[in-house]
Amino acid sequence: GENVEQHPSTLSVQEGDSAVIKCTYSDSASNYFPWYKQELGKGSQLIIDIRSNVGEKKDQRIAVTLNKTAKHFSLHITETQPEDSAVYFCAATTGSGGSQGNLIFGKGTKLSVKP
Amino acid sequence: DAGVTQSPTHLIKTRGQHVTLRCSPISGHKSVSWYQQVLGQGPQFIFQYYEKEERGRGNFPDRFSARQFPNYSSELNVNALLLGDSALYLCASSLQATNTEAFFGQGTRLTVV
């Protein structure tokens, strides 16, 4: 089955700096890779996702890159702000739904942005 | 538009008791999935329901069960609670059964004492 590894587990940056979180996956059949931001009391917010037919996707200060050959994908946050502080989770799925196609999550990265 | 809503937000139960957690998906979404998130870990898949039928089940004991109603809301039931069942239970809804573009609720924090 799929296995997703996420690094680092904690990340501390100064406001305005960039933050990068990396994930690797094991199942070459995985074709959809979302990123979630989890804040206390606010649940888990889907912030960006990428499909396997695309190498990079950007949304304002957030970008995700995918390397299918190496089976890894990364989240890039530029010009970080204190409100970016949260736990970020990457996930992978084959997109088929069901027992074999559910979301497999990494263990999370706690991002702290210091003002 | 309301997002995914879960109730209750917090719950304390005693070992051996039974618990029912509820989830209302985003309007129009027919797929509901349940995940368990223990402290320091990512969410782990428990069940997926699509169009009121079970589409998938994760590696959880038979004490865990779920169902989906005609209005696509869902319940997760856990019997004979163990201390190890203490976790954040998350519900996710998506338009399709593929689990792409899944939106999560705030979760139910279950504490078993």
Description:
The complex is a heterodimer of chains A (115) and B (113). By secondary structure, chain A is mainly beta. Helix content of chain A is 0%, strand content 56%. Chain A has strands spanning 4-7, 10-14, 19-25, 32-39, 43-51, 56-59, 62-67, 72-77, 86-92, 104-105, 109-114. In chain A, the strands form two sheets. In chain A, strands 2, 4, 5, 9, 10 and 11 form a six-stranded mixed sheet that branches. In chain A, strands 1-3-8-7-6 form a five-stranded antiparallel sheet, with no helix packed on it. Chain B has no helices and eleven strands. In chain B, the strands form two sheets. In chain B, strands 2, 4, 5, 6, 9, 10 and 11 form a seven-stranded mixed sheet that branches. Chain B has a four-stranded antiparallel sheet with strand order 1-3-8-7, with no helix packed on it. The termini of chain B are far apart. The A-B interface holds A 4, 6, 32, 34, 36, 41-46, 49, 89, 91, 93, 95-108 and B 3-4, 31, 33, 35, 40-45, 48, 50, 55-58, 90, 92, 96-107.
